[in-house]
């Protein structure tokens, strides 16, 4: 079955937003289209960049004309069905009530956002507003592809309405390149059914995870699983555990990598020990998101480091019985090896105005109306994907149907994203390579992380 | 008497016919290659008007000093050198068998082309799941046959991952090799075999001195094209392993992709692509000179 792209929820390779409907299930239900799409997207990207470089950009001449409605183009990069339904209605309502500004809504595949940003940034032509992953705020903000919201007079008032800790994710050198609207804290997906059958409690620490290992192994079940292949899924899962262990990616002044410190090494040693004892899949070094989801959903593992998207992924793609799903905090070592407080890795979806938009003021008005003032952002709603970032959504008396919202909210409040560095994708790649090398036994945890740190130090020195 | 103008026109006529082809060549090959060369000497800034910084050969120096790039060259060489001979031997065997089949040969040939006709992305996914540690059919059959005691984690170990992508690559390329060699075999005159037979040549001698000798140029073309395609292969390996585990299958095109389109270092990516192009060009020239040496001599004579 192939569904329309517009029905597809978030699915960026790295963060964990996933498609739960883009499935061509003739071979297997565990075969997601995300990666099949990946190569097509790569080809399109190469073609797009090539063509753009070849012909050069042709700047937009779309300017507001007095007496005529201004068109604001909004690109929605995917979303869960509930979100898509909401945005269609919100745009329709906005257009019906605003004669001076009309929104032109276009849907795109979540997985193509970086490619789109590259080509539109190069050509200087594209939408006015985009809804994308927060990590692009710095990468494309620094390149001029995104507009700093600080330029708007009423930005401080808007900023005040959003949780303080999520702003960090969309800022670079004091400028804010997007409005964080949805957050996705990394948590641990637990198959409570498996744990109950074996009389086990949800583990809170690495030590407890290791303790449940032998019990589950006796029945051929891995205690923990995660993607360990050479992809950004791996980097995210590593960082989720690094943050919980009190580690950090860079040193204080961002001049050197710090993920190769005691916390990073401890994470890899923990995973390797789990693997060697048979509590963690041997094949994880080849797993992408899909393989890992298949492994967990077919009850070959009890725990996985994931996020709020897990519910739709495992039920939509694998018919997993959600009664068994519980969300818990990612386990951490009883004694933190790192010098930082234990934090939660947090992903954020943001709304940005493009740096080349000829109508930034109008775009800002649209952005506020749809993504700040709309009441949908003041109640956590599982149909909308992640959880909202507005402080009002967590005020006393707000009722929500989101499963384990307290866990998600606590994790979100404790959240810390990837450092907002312009070369973050490259840095993530080096970290993923290091984790993969350690998991395959090609290098010790320290060697693998040091190797990646060398590469990252070089990148940091370049900026 | 022919006027000077007519003579000039006559002399220029071939060039008129060549012009459209030359224009296409300039537009689709020379210009991109030249742009690539220029880009490789710059630190390319993405934004329009950003101004690229000329850095000379720094991109090349960085690449040649990069462990990842050097390792990926090794992976490309290993991937090609291990795939090509096996694919060739299997392809030649199949071609010899098909050459003996007189009935329904087109039907068999059509079936044979299926792996070659399938998009590399699909082939990659198919083999990725065939080699899956838990759900893969490869492990299932090996277990059923009693050849292994436990599932092999094919794509999670450097050596087995390389073996897996080579198997998939051979499966994909073999039909092309078979078809090319089959066409060559059908062009060999039966009189040559009869003459060899009369001269007392046994089967092996006939194969060596007639079949292979007559196929020499076809084999040369097959090797040349297959090498270029295999060295340039991206989709199959990227889908199957993404270049892992531990970069064991990270061939040069994957490295170029990562540098240029993941890390957005377009200048360095261009330099890497140019190195690959020069390598393939040099290899092709040497190959053509060696394989078609006798033909060139014949022409000169």
What are the main properties of this structure?
heterodimer, A: 463 residues, alpha/beta, D-Maltodextrin-Binding Protein, domain 2, 7-stranded mixed beta sheet, 4-stranded mixed beta sheet, 16 helices, disordered N terminus, B: 301 residues, mainly alpha, MetI-like fold, 2 domains, two-stranded antiparallel ribbon, 14 helices, 2 strands, flat
Folded structure, characterized:
The complex is a heterodimer of chains A (463) and B (301). With 463 residues, chain A is an alpha/beta fold. Chain A has a domain at 185-344 and 420-462: Periplasmic binding protein-like II (D-Maltodextrin-Binding Protein, domain 2, 3-Layer(aba) Sandwich). Chain A is built from 16 helices and 13 strands. In chain A, β4 (171-172) and β5 form a beta hairpin. In chain A, α1 (33-55) packs parallel to α3 and α15 (424-440) runs antiparallel to α16. Chain A starts with 32 loop residues before the first helix and ends with a helix. Mean pLDDT of chain A is 85; it is low at 1-39 and 53-60. The model of chain B has no long low-confidence stretch (mean pLDDT 91).
Sequence of strands across the biggest β-sheet of chain B: 1-2
* Fourth-level CATH superfamily of the largest domain in chain B: MetI-like
At CATH level 2, the architecture of the domain at 185-344 and 420-462 in chain A is 3-Layer(aba) Sandwich
Largest interface: A-B, 55 and 43 residues
Q: In CATH, what is the class of the largest domain in chain B?
A: Mainly Alpha
User: Strand count, sense and closure of the main sheet of chain B?
Assistant: 2 strands, antiparallel
CATH architecture of the largest domain in chain B: Orthogonal Bundle
Give me the number of helical elements of chain A.
16
Mean pLDDT across the residues of chain A is 85
Helix and strand composition category of chain B: mainly alpha
User: What's the gyration radius of chain A in Å?
Assistant: 22 Å
**Apparent shape of chain B:** flat
